[in-house]
Amino acid sequence: QVQLVESGGGLVQPGGSLRLSCVASGSIFTFQNMGWYRQAPGKQRELVASIAVTSGSTNYADSAKDRFAISRDNFKNTMYLQMNSLKPEDTAVYYCNLKRNWPRADLWGQGTQVTVSS
Among 53, 52, 60, 48, which residue's Cα sits nearest to residue 74? Predict the structure, then answer.
């Protein structure tokens, strides 16, 4: 079973930047899609951005467009989320996700806290 470990979260001032990383313990080549989700207190978990493992095509939530950039390094089994121009409303726990259609798999990391505050 592949395990995911996120890192890079922390406290940052509004307008600042953070880069999150997600490392998979095994090969991601058998998976179709990787993504970053976030969950703020009292809110549902929501998709921030996703990237296709093979093609690299990306998808962003409206709130992340033009500020965040998702990328992956398949040979390092690692995914990144570069977050710029951070806002207080970006404060949440950010989770890494890995999906595969068959055999079906929907894997999650433990999450990393991002706090945007002055």
Answer: 53
CB atoms within 10 A of CB 83: 27
| 33-39/46-52 β-pairing | antiparallel
pLDDT in 10s for each residue of the chain, 118 residues: 899 999 999 999 999 999 999 999 988 888 999 999 999 999 999 999 999 999 999 999 999 999 999 999 989 999 999 999 999 999 999 999 999 988 999 999 999 999 999 9
Answer for the pair 34, 97: CB distance below 8 angstroms, yes or no. Answer: yes
Q: Give the DSSP H or E segment for 108.
A: strand 105-108
Type of residue found at 110: Q
Name which of 105, 107, 43 is nearest 79 in CA terms: 107
What separation in angstroms does the CA of 61 have from each of 3, 75, 94? 25, 26, 14
φ/ψ bin of 66: left (φ > 0), alpha (ψ from -120 to 50), beta (otherwise): left
Cα 110–Cα 112–Cα 117 angle in degrees, nearest 5: 155
